[in-house]
Amino acid sequence: MKPGDKVICIDDNKWHNVPVIGICAGIIYIIDEIFTCKCGNVYVRLVEVNKFANMWCAKCDRTTRTRLYYYIQRFRLLDQAENIEKEVISRKEPVMNKV
User: Fold this and answer.
1) Is residue 6 a contact partner of residue 44, using CB atoms and an 8 Å limit?
2) What is the pLDDT of residue 30?
3) Can you tell me the distance from the alpha carbon of 28 to that of 26, in angstroms, rounded to the nearest whole number?
4) Per-residue burial over 56-80, b = 16 or more CB atoms within 10 Å of its CB, e = otherwise
5) pTM assigned to the model
6) In this predicted model, which residue has the larger pLDDT, 80 or 61?
7) What is the pLDDT of residues 38-61, one digit of tens each?
8) Edge-to-edge strands, sheet with 75-77
9) Percentage of the chain with pLDDT > 90?
10) What is the residue extent of each domain of the chain?
11) SS3 assignment, position 67
12) pLDDT per residue over 2-51, tens digit each?
């Protein structure tokens, strides 16, 4: 994964009893930034999530006020065929019932 890649969230469950905010499983996001914490955990920031909060890294047990970030394991890279299919579905017109 790299900045600019489209990813799909595959895990929005809380970890370490900390609720997850800002993402939902099954939703497509674009990676804005990938970074590695001092402890070695790899995180991503998303283009669509631009909120600040007190973020906690479980491995180094450190809290920092920063833009929301998420474990990279919560996402899967979207393959090109899947991406095209999702875009087609999202562009379809709603079906109107005729009376």
Assistant:
1) no
2) 95
3) 7
4) ebeeeeeeeeeebbbebebbeebee
5) 0.73
6) 61
7) 899 999 999 999 888 888 888 888
8) 70-71, 42-46, 28-36, 6-9, 75-77
9) 41
10) 6-91
11) strand
12) 999 999 999 988 876 777 888 999 999 999 999 999 899 999 999 999 88
Q: CA quadruple 40, 66, 16, 10: dihedral positive or negative?
A: negative
Contacts of 96 (CB under 8 A, 6+ apart): none
- Distances in Å between the Cα of 9 and the Cα atoms of 23, 35, 99 are 7, 18, 39
Give the C-alpha separation, 22 to 42, whole Å: 18
Q: Which one-letter DSSP state was computed for residue 72?
A: G
Who contacts 66 (Cβ-Cβ below 8 Å, separation ≥6)? 52, 53, 55
Residue carrying the six token digits 């970030």: 69
Q: Sign of the C-alpha dihedral, residues 72, 58, 56, 25?
A: positive
Q: What share of the chain is helix, strand, coil (3-state, %, to 5)?
A: 15, 35, 45
